[in-house]
Amino acid sequence: MKYSLPALLFSFLFLSACANFRLHLEGEALEEAPSALGEPEFTVYLIGDAGDTEMGEVPPAVRLLGEKLKTAPENSATVFLGDNIYPDGLPPKHDPGRALAEYRLKVQLDILKDYKGKPYFIPGNHDWYQDEGRKGVERQEKFIEKYLGLGKDVWLPNHGCGDIETENFSKSVVGVFVDSEWYLMNWLKERELNEGCEIRSRQNFMFFFQEALKKNRRKNVVVFMHHPLHTNGGHGGRYSVKQHLFPLTDLNPRLYIPFPGVGTAFMFLRATVGSRTDTAHPLYREMKKIMEREARKNGSFIFAAGHEHNLQYFEIENQSYIVSGSGSKVDPVAKGRGLQFGYGKEPGFSILKFYPEGETWLEFWVAEGDGSKGRKLFSRQIKGKLPTFKTEKPDEYPIYESGADSMATVLKPDLAGSALHRFFWGDHFRESYRASVKAPTLDLATWRGGVTPIKRGGGSQTNSLRVVDKEGKQWVLRDMLKDESRMVPYPFNKTFASGLFADQFTASNPYVAFILPKLSDAAGIYHTNPHLYYIPKQPVLGDFNDTFGDRLYLVEERADGDWRDLPSFGNSKELVSTLDLLEEVQEDHDHRVDYRAVVRARLFDNMVGDWDRHDDNWRWATIKDENSGVTWYRPIPRDRDQPFSKWDGAVPAMVRIGTPFLKQLRPYDGKIANIKWLNYHSKYFDPTFLSGADWSVWEDEALKMKAAVTDEVIAHAMEDFPKEIKAIDAPWITPRLRQRRDDLPDIARRFYLLMARKVDVVGTEEHDHFTVERLDDERTRVRIYHSNKKGEKKGAPYFERT
């Protein structure tokens, strides 16, 4: 028995196929692309984990890549695969570690100065390691875009969101950008992690990932992410003999203290349980399983990642996996498990070359010495010609081909409606969902001169399709019926829970968005202009026909970009998101929020009972005053799903009592029972965007709106319901809306007092001078001025609040 422990140790070391620094290769190392292929249609350079160097030094792999990029073609992209700054991303400007962090990033950015192609950066786990991870990621994004002077979409996904970003590199090559650290991190540490983002859950992430692969499955698709789905390095449970015998060297290369038994035990635990950065971790396994399932279902794809400090290539079940993470560090790699190439002794990068008919070649390069020179270790074709597909025939679209100018449709013909069910779960707007509504058909080939589908979208409840017209303007086609499967994760989506969610969606009136434009015009609120259409399946939809068409859709402008010809968007030349607005106003005194316009918009929300007004449900019209040079930001509400909602029934009432944050889910009524809970969903938005308005503004706006939204305006707005719905819902909504309108001054006072308990006063990144005056026992005046470098105020205040 005295030899059992050494025998066990030896057996584990032997069976685990230890990682090492040797070259691992299956088949030929260097093959040459036939000259008959011609020049590549597109080239992608891949380097990861390049952010670890000392002041005055340049990582050899980064220097070698820079040499390559000097002669790189314009039709190319360079993707930095995360961990751009070790050890914990980009700290704030006054942090002691800021200078070194900036240097580590700049040595990568500097090789791009004369690069003709397009650079891209994605975040890795180390880029998220600031105390406020998302702010750190956004800080790095902002720094890179400003330093390179290339504008947005150099850092993907944008704003620290988990959104799936797709870039069309060429007619047959597509990049799909994923923030895998967003998926794997502990979300409880980031209170506002998903604010302002299209994707807000891991279930939604996988839905959009599937859509990205499905839409582009006939092209060469590269999925860029930091964490590899397959690896034979340390994060994949393959360790070197040194790691088994001297485990402390992972923390400090100089700690050669032998702990053979302890090291092996630790490595065993890491290989079987793992941290969030290891493939053994349950959340990592979940991500890998789902992404690979969608890949196998939709074709053959290339996954490119960093994370491991070596070079690896796998071919597994018709998918290709590249690890290119030795940008500034090196680590060993083991053979087996589908590995075609593996090397970790020298730093390097990889290159993908896509040829006109789809053939794809992969190269691995390593740096020699300081990186002035390097050598190619691997070159092989990894994909053949793209298959050709027949286009769908017109006779597959019977409704479209019939030429019908309108169609009558019922949203939910099988909706439950027994008296007992309605007692417990509420009447809601069931009758509207069961009503047959006639709507004009929409031919996308002729509408607005013909439109082209570009992206599937939608939030956590809605399926939508984005299309672009001949003028470059984008429009959204939104399914009138919400999709409960996007809120209910597996396996609960196979149970009664799915039907319960679908039933409760009927508390929202599906047709209410159509009556809001006339009310908004009267109140002085910017708005979209939704229209109801029946959209049949049709050739223009192409691959989207399998999930879109033969239903009712709300069609409206996408509030983004240039809409200078649209009065309801303020004739603005640029509409921006809330996150973009915050960046601008923090950078420049002359970019300011129109607080009066925000007060007006929020009073309107309270009048119509729209409780779902979080940050991402707003876009902002930019209006520049040529005389003063000030750019004003005025709000445009979007996604109007919840006005006049009817959360009646015994069960919703009981849930409200026991669950405070659901207290906003109540039947719309003439009186607001609790102003706090109605506005709970805007608890972060309101303190930021209402802070500059004192009571005189609130009172003035409330009185103006009360006078402007007359009984005639309300009656006129109800005419925009489909006629079948007007007869059902206008009699219920009208008297309640009139009462809310009449109550606007009281609503304004209650809302103002709620917000006045705590007022956020925020300066900019420029020089600011604050003054605080105590006027009496109840009033304080705060002003913010421009200031010089000495802190002396200049001119009139750009912010004032009493």
What does this structure look like?
- With 802 residues, the chain is an alpha+beta fold.
- The chain folds into four domains: 21-235 and 278-383, Purple Acid Phosphatase, chain A, domain 2 (4-Layer Sandwich); 238-274, no CATH class; 394-756, no CATH class; 768-801, no CATH class.
- Helices cover 29% and strands 20% of the residues.
- It has 23 helices and 28 strands.
- The chain has an eight-stranded mixed β-sheet, with no helix packed on it. It has a six-stranded mixed β-sheet with strand order 4-3-2-12-13-14. Strands 17-18-19-21-20 form a five-stranded antiparallel β-sheet.
- A hairpin with a 6-residue loop joins β17 (452-457) and β18 (464-468).
- α6 (202-215) packs parallel to α9, α14 (516-523) runs antiparallel to α21 (711-718) and α21 (711-718) runs antiparallel to α22.
- The radius of gyration is 29 Å and the shape is globular.
- The termini are far apart.
Write a brief structural summary:
The protein has 802 residues and is α+β, with helices and mostly antiparallel strands. The chain is built from 23 helices and 28 strands. The longest helix has 20 residues.
List its traits.
Purple Acid Phosphatase, chain A, domain 2, 802 residues, globular, 28 strands, 4 domains, alpha+beta, 23 helices, eight-stranded mixed sheet, six-stranded mixed sheet
